[in-house]
Amino acid sequence: MDVSALLKQIVQYRIQQGSFDDFTIDNATGVVSIARKLDFDRRNTYQMEIVASDSGTPSLSGTTMLTVSIINSNDKAPYFTPTTQRAEVSEDAPIGTLVHTLVAVDPDVASSESLDYAATEPITAVDKNGKEVGEMEDFKDMFMIDRSGKVFVNRRLLRDSFAVIRITVLVTDTTAPSIQQGEGLLIITITDVNEEPPVSAYSIYAANTPGHIRYRLRVEE
Q1: What sequence ranges are listed for the domain Cadherin (predicted)?
Q2: What are the structural domains, with CATH classification, of the chain?
Q3: Is residue 173 a contact partner of residue 114, using CB atoms and an 8 Å limit?
Q4: How would you classify residue 142: left for phi > 0, otherwise alpha for psi between -120 and 50, otherwise beta?
Q5: Neighbours of 159 (CB within 10 A)
Q6: Kind plus residue range of the DSSP H or E element containing 8
Q7: CA nearest 51: which of 21, 20, 25?
Q8: Rounded distance between C-alpha atoms, residue 90 and residue 98, angstroms
């Protein structure tokens, strides 16, 4: 066999386009390999143009299209958006009042029903004067968070003692093969209710005009 015939049997391969640097090809064997970590959420399909060329003179080549589809895997933890969420509720809100609905996302789940919410420690509070409340005070069960992320009043609110309550919250992906959780913070401000009626004070004094009485009215709370 002459040299030119041998050269025609030597084929080299290359990726012409479509790999986005995520795949490489062995020039001699044509084996396509992963070059770096793939991400379904970044790109889930590749259309790569593969060129095969011999070493003859002139060189002859052919092309083919290689389609690679990426299968999604549940590898991302859920997270709150925003990380710190805020709500307000009136001090006279009855038990069972909906205060807030927590919001979290997970790029790997198709439905929000796959996410479970819960409260966890630390749970802290400050009184109406901005002073930190001690750990032994009874405020940690004033609010209840159900699995869907809804936050309810759980018992009578006491703003004078607990004006702001900070609850550490967790969101868990129930479909993940291993535990995947995100952590956030819910700050609930309990607004004041005017519980004391206003007190009226007035004074009567004589006017210069006969038959008329003038008075001054002052309202105090």
Answers
A1: 11-80, 81-200
A2: 11-69 (2.60.40.60), 79-191 (2.60.40.60)
A3: yes
A4: alpha
A5: 18
A6: helix 3-9
A7: 25
A8: 11
Q: Taking the CA atoms of the chain, what radius of gyration do you get in angstroms?
A: 35
- pLDDT digits (tens), the chain, 221 positions: 555 555 557 899 999 999 999 999 999 999 999 999 998 888 999 999 999 999 878 888 999 999 999 988 888 899 999 999 999 999 999 999 999 999 999 988 878 899 999 999 999 999 999 999 987 778 999 999 999 999 999 999 999 999 999 999 999 999 988 899 999 999 999 999 876 655 555 554 545 555 555 555 555 55
Task: Decide if 166 contacts 125 (C-beta within 8 A).
Answer: yes
Closest CA to 123 of 114, 131, 115, 132: 132
Altogether, the residues listed in the chain come to a count of 221
Task: Please tell me what DSSP assigns to residue 126.
Answer: E
- Give me the residue label for tokens 């210069």: 208
CA 40 – CA 33 distance, rounded (Å)? 17
Side by side, the strands of the sheet bearing 164-173 are: 84-90, 181-191, 164-173, 115-126
pTM for the model:
0.66
Q: Which residue has the tokens 């940690």?
A: 140
How many Cβ atoms are within 10 Å of 181's Cβ, its own excluded?
Answer: 15
- Whether the ω angle into residue 58 lies within 30 degrees of 0, i.e. cis, is yes
Cβ(83)–Cβ(184) under 8 Å? yes
- According to DSSP, residue 112 is labeled G
